[in-house]
Amino acid sequence: MITDPFFYLCAIPAVLLFGVAKGGFGGTVAVVSVPLMALAVPPLQAAAILLPILVVMDAVALWSFRGQYDRINLKILLPAAVAGVVIGAFFFRYLPDDAIRVLIGLIAVIFCFNYWFNPGYHSKTAPNRLRGSFWGMVAGFTSFGIHAGAPPVSVYMLPQQLDKKLLMGTFAVFFASVNFVKLFPYAWLGSFEATNLLTSLVLIPLAPIGVRLGFYLLHRVDEKIIYRLAYFFLCVMGVKLLDDGSRGLIAASEMGAI
Predict the structure, then answer these.
(1) In angstroms, how far is CA 204 from the centroid of its own chain?
(2) DSSP-assigned letters across all residues of 110-173
(3) Cα separation values, 106 from 71, 109, 113, 242, Å
């Protein structure tokens, strides 16, 4: 089990944030979690520790939003997401940790800039098989490696302006399905070693707390304040990970050249 206090300083708020997001309060801010944990451990280890916790969160979220989901969007998104998970399973294991840090940082920064500066981000649209399949595949891919499937799915889903509970229920079914599928390639890649599983076990009690807290806050707190803070800190962490990963890649390149 990981015993480094700095890891838990990062992991506890990361798990709670993911749970709050799955509970429906500030859904896309869950993308903060892996970058936050990646400050303390390698990104793929952070993802492996989080996955069993996410499965528990998914069960709580499915119960909280039971019966509320959009069938049409799920039929479009899920097959493409499974394909994205398969691609991710073969791709991520060949990337060094610093390259993944750069990838996470890019996703975080681009997502923040898209949210801040794209005026058409919230224009109303209808379900579309081509766009849904593309963003579903991207979501499966990013979800596999860094549990960052929410931003791509949100780019597709948010402009449809569904009822808030219907939207979050659709997210709940989508990510419960994707995370279940991810268990198999994670096991195949040997990610569930004893250290990771024991650390997950220690953090799992936070899962239902975070989800129920998000469900409680969904109707009681102004999301705008939370979103502004979350996107600001996400951008800061993204820039830091870009810097750390770039420095690491440059150093590795120089060592290779020597």
Answers:
(1) 17
(2) HHHHHHHH-TTTT------HHHHHHHHHHHHHHHHHHS--HHHHHHHHGGG---HHHHHHHHHH
(3) 32, 5, 11, 7
Q: How far apart are CA 258 and CA 16, in angstroms?
A: 44
DSSP state of 24: T
What single-letter DSSP state applies at residue 248? Answer: H
Q: Letter for the amino acid at 14?
A: A
Q: How far, in Å, CA of 157 to CA of 154, rounded? A: 5
SS (H, E, C) 40-98: CCCHHHHHHHHHHHHHHHHHHHHHHCCCCCCHHHHHHHHHHHHHHHHHHHHHHHHCCHH
pLDDT of residue 186: 92
Look at residues 47, 52, 48 and name the one whose alpha carbon lies nearest to residue 33.
47
User: CA nearest 177: which of 52, 70, 87, 74?
Assistant: 74
What is the rounded distance in angstroms from the CA atom of residue 249 to the CA atom of residue 74?
38
**pTM of model > 0.85:** no
Mean pLDDT by 10 residues, the chain (258 residues): 88 89 67 79 86 90 87 96 93 76 77 74 76 92 80 77 81 93 92 91 91 78 64 73 84 70
Both structure tokens of 21: 């997001």
Give 27's contacts (C-beta < 8 A, 6+ positions apart). Answer: 21, 150, 154, 167, 168, 171
Residue 78 sits at φ, ψ, to 5 deg, of -65, -45
93 alpha-carbon distance from chain centroid? 18
Distance CA 113, CA 98 (A): 22
